[in-house]
Amino acid sequence: MKKSPLFVIGITLKPNSTPEFYNILPNLCSWLIRRKRKVVFRLEDTERVHKFFKGKKIEDFEFWDSKAFHQRVELMLSLGGDGTLIGVCRRIKSTIPVLGINLGRLGFITEFNKNEYFDHLEDILNGKYETTTKPLFHVSVLRNSKIHFQDYFFNDAVVAKNDIARMIYLRAELGKEHIYNLSGDGIIISTPLGSTAYSMAAGGPIVHPDVKGLILTPICPHSLIHRPFVVPENASIQLRILPPYHSVTLTLDGQVAINVDDQDVVIINGSKVKKVSLIKNQERSYFETVREKFILSKRD
Asked: Are 217 and 239 in contact (CB under 8 A)?
């Protein structure tokens, strides 16, 4: 079904500058402006954008603060790798479609590579595109029975040790039911879309992104019986640190990290989710991506 045309185009850049931006950005922006589109960048990228245009006039662009940028554009272009796209998904308003353009190496969840996105962009601007809706899961840290921290994750939430040659001890619960006590390097709570990231590297299963579940994958468990679990996505997972206590960190999508104290409780609330709309590449299938990226070891 054709949607309304898109006129306000936000462009998110990967945090680390790449020489490719010197060619890609001027071509992309001039192409959009010729089609009467408003091009918007984040305010904090102002200096970088000027550098990529090598002193050329860029008065046709606008620079918005982060809140407006992630709430008011009509289409978001994510230029980078999977990490750049994940960062956008954690911030953006759920109704804004996101087009992931891979400039990195793996590019598993970025639907388009740098050589093909122009072939689709004209249709997308004119409302001819399909999206897939993916959830971000809520995580909170309770300290003294009060919320100390809360945020969302797209790929995974990881509770792991900080110290070398030390194990940590965790109690994992599903709702009011005890799953197991775990000794090892930590645990990964992964979404199906994130199952091909850290969870897979730690021995977890590859789970199709349409499966409605969460994966609990132990990290180097000091036991032969601790194996990954797949649980319903609307479950409430609670993680408690057990003695003897060591330094522990909660990391979300490899981008946000906070220390977890001894008496803290980490809660993943599967019934409280945020949605994000990703533009689909109709010429790319999930299993084709799995074969190319992990079986044939191809990299964009």
From this structure: no
Q: Is residue 285 included in any domain, yes or no? A: yes
Q: Is 45 helix (H, G, I), strand (E, B) or coil?
A: helix
Catalytically active residues are 82
What is the extent of the structural domain holding 164?
A: 137-274
> Which residue is it, tokens 């891979």?
102
Question: Is 224 exposed, middle or buried (CB count within 10 Å of its CB: 0-12, 13-18, 19+)?
Answer: exposed
Asked if residue 40 belongs to a domain, the reply is yes
Q: Position 120: which residue type?
A: H
pLDDT mean over 76-102: 94
Residues 258 and 289 in one domain: no
Taken as a whole, the chain contains a residue count of: 300
Question: What's the pTM?
Answer: 0.90
In the chain, the amino acid numbered 104 is G
CA angle 202, 205, 209 (to 5 degrees): 120
**CATH number of the domain enclosing 216:** 2.60.200.30
pLDDT mean across residues, the chain: 91
Measure the CA–CA gap between 248 and 261, rounded to whole angstroms. 7
